[in-house]
Design a protein that fits this description.
Elements: E1 7-12, E2 15-20, H1 31-46, E3 52-57, E4 61-63, H2 77-93, E5 99-103, E6 106-108, H3 110-117, E7 120-124, E8 128-130, H4 144-152, H5 154-163, E9 166-168, H6 169-174, E10 180-182, H7 184-199, H8 203-216, H9 221-236, H10 239-249
The chain binds ligand T3D.
Ligand T3D binds next to helix 2 and strand 6.
Length: 259
């Protein structure tokens, strides 16, 4: 049986938009859909022509997490998590370019974890965020138990995880879970405009900045300053650095090419 496509990837210049596309299941993910997603995220990561990625959902949800109707979903959960959930988060966090989440509707369970792994989050007015795991007596996965407290702090993260309640857009904004809330019909265009602006920035430097700030969430000041020194050597040698300095001295806008 041919597997129905579970997401699509569209390119507009240097911006790639990945749309989770199982709207009848609120874009809930199966093992097969996660594998395919990991493959495409890795391909986008390696594609120098792509300088920013937007992640969104088709229909009325962003992603409802694990497809609770998937047959045999409970078999080999350990392998499933290691082989399909963790690699999604690793692909997003490790992507050497920004990833912008356009949260068009409910982001629940692993769907919320995936959104939290992104670098920028915009949310539609009617969307909800939900640490749904405890509602079905599970623990957070897909990185949710690390990502959420790093964004909102332990006490708020625990409350959201323990209650599994719905967080509406105004609260999500107040908690810094998202950076902007927009009318639903403006969300994707706004996310893609931001992605376009980010794609025109010096991509190598942004990728290294992402790496540094992720390292800073775990490492000491001394460790991070050491990594800064290493990455600055590479940044100084980039064509974009030369272009940035020339543009400054010539009093014009820089034209960064991502190299
Ligand atoms: O098993 C493992 O591998 C372990 C790993 C787990 C990772 C996880 O992600 S666990 C968390 C799984 N996700 C959830 O528990 C979320 C369940 N869904 C909801 O809480 C709500 O549906 C939403 C908050 C996402 C949206 O609420 P609402 O009111 O807008 O929609 P609804 O009426 O609840 O759902 C609409 C339909 O989508 C409904 O089907 P129906 O009745 O129209 O035929 C519902 O069953 C279906 N649906 C929603 N979420 C899922 C789903 N079907 C399958 N899997 C889902 N996750």
């Amino acid at each position: 049986m041919t597997e129905e496509p579970a997401h699509r990837v569209e390119r507009d210049g240097a911006v790639a938009t990945v749309t989770l596309d199982r709207p009848d299941a609120l874009n809930a993910q199966t093992r097969a859909s996660r594998r395919a997603l990991v493959g495409d995220l890795r391909a986008l990561s390696a594609d120098d022509g792509v300088r920013c990625v937007v992640l969104t959902g088709a229909g009325r949800a962003f992603c409802a997490g694990q497809d609770l109707r998937e047959e045999n979903a409970l078999e080999n959960v350990d392998a499933t998590i290691r082989e399909t959930y963790i690699p999604i988060v690793e692909a997003i966090v490790g992507m050497p370019k920004p990833v912008v989440a356009a949260i068009n509707g409910a982001a629940a369970g692993a769907g919320l974890s995936i959104a939290l792994a992104c670098d920028v989050r915009y949310m539609a007015e009617g969307a909800v965020l939900m640490m749904a795991f405890s509602n079905i007596a599970l623990v957070p996965d897909c990185g949710g138990s690390w990502l959420l407290p790093h964004i909102v702090g332990y006490a708020r993260a625990f409350e959201l995880a323990a209650t599994g309640r719905r967080v509406a857009a105004d609260e999500a904004l107040a908690l810094d879970l998202v950076q902007r809330v927009l009318p639903a019909d403006e969300l994707l265009a706004a996310a893609q405009a931001t992605a376009g602006a980010l794609a025109a920035r010096p991509t190598l430097a942004l990728g290294w900045t992402k790496r540094l700030m992720r390292a800073a969430e775990q490492g000491s000041l001394a460790d991070v300053m050491e990594l800064e020194a290493q990455l600055q050597v590479a940044a100084v040698a980039s064509s974009d650095h030369a272009e940035g300095v020339n543009a400054f001295l010539e009093k014009r806008d820089a034209r960064f090419e991502g190299r």
